[in-house]
Amino acid sequence: MRPFLAVAVSILGLSLASCQGVNVEDLSTFGDSAASVENLSDAEFYATDELITMGKTQFKERNYGKSYSFFKRAVEVFPKDPAAWLGFAASADHVGRFDTADRAYRVLSTMIGRRPEYYNNVGYSYLLRGNLPKARHYFLKAYEIDPSNEITANNLELMRNSVAFAKRGYRG
Predict the structure, then answer these.
(1) Using CA of residue 18, residue 19, residue 22, residue 24, what is the dihedral sign?
(2) Which residue of 46, 126, 148, 161 is most buried, as measured by CB atoms within 10 A?
(3) DSSP code of 148?
(4) Percentages (nearest 5) of helix, strand, coil residues in the chain
(5) Contact at 8 Å (CB) between 81 and 68?
(6) Residue range 57-62: average pLDDT?
(7) According to the model, what pLDDT value does residue 165 have?
(8) Strand partners, 12
(9) H helix intervals, 19-63
(10) Over residues 121-144, mean pLDDT
(11) Beta strands in the chain (DSSP E)
(12) Residue 68's Cα: distance from chain center in Å?
């Protein structure tokens, strides 16, 4: 058995000696670089819907700053998820970050741009800004797509009440 071990060691030694520029200490047990198996204990893991669920919960409780933070992280982790972008845009609207909301709505327009949820949210954004003509325009687009949508009906009713009780001008 010893001659076999000596042959194996000599073959292994020759094969390692023939590798130029490779330091054995820089390899992991999987054959790739040691850096590929570094400690990643500070990396964050999120279940598929954890951030969105937490964002929705905070939004429903009217903690818009917290929902904004959760949805912001959600769009970073899941950039192709329309629910993350809708929550991010709505949260941005409620904390007065209309520039951020506009950016989110531009992203959403390529994902779900012809859906009532999109038009309702954009309309509500303009309602919060005080731009009632634009808000009405988007609410009517949502209504044309789905006349039975309760959210659209509520938003149009909100528009009627806003026009009846307060005069607002477009501010930006």
Answers:
(1) negative
(2) 126
(3) T
(4) 70, 0, 30
(5) no
(6) 95
(7) 52
(8) none
(9) 50-60
(10) 95
(11) none
(12) 10
| Both structure tokens of 113 | 């741009």
Contact 66, 76 (CB under 8 A): no
pLDDT at 20: 45
The number of C-alpha atoms within 13 Å of 56 and in the hemisphere containing its C-beta is 9
Q: Does 93 have pLDDT greater than 60?
A: yes
Report the chain's terminal Cα–Cα distance, integer Å.
Answer: 86
The structure tokens listed for 126 are 């303009």
Residue at token pair 């990643």? 40
Phi, psi of 79 (to 5 degrees): -70, -10
SS3 48: coil
Largest CA distance in the chain: 99
Q: Which amino acid is at 50?
A: E
Residue 161's pLDDT is 75
Tell me if residue 27 falls in helix, strand or coil. strand
Query: How far is residue 79's CA from residue 30's CA, in Å, rounded to a whole number?
Result: 31
Provide the β-strand partners of residue 80.
none
* Residue 3: both structure tokens together: 């001659």
Is the torsion defined by CA of 129, 104, 81, 42 positive or negative?
negative
Q: What are phi and psi of 75, to 5 degrees?
A: -70, -25
What predicted TM-score, i.e. pTM, was given to this entire model? 0.67
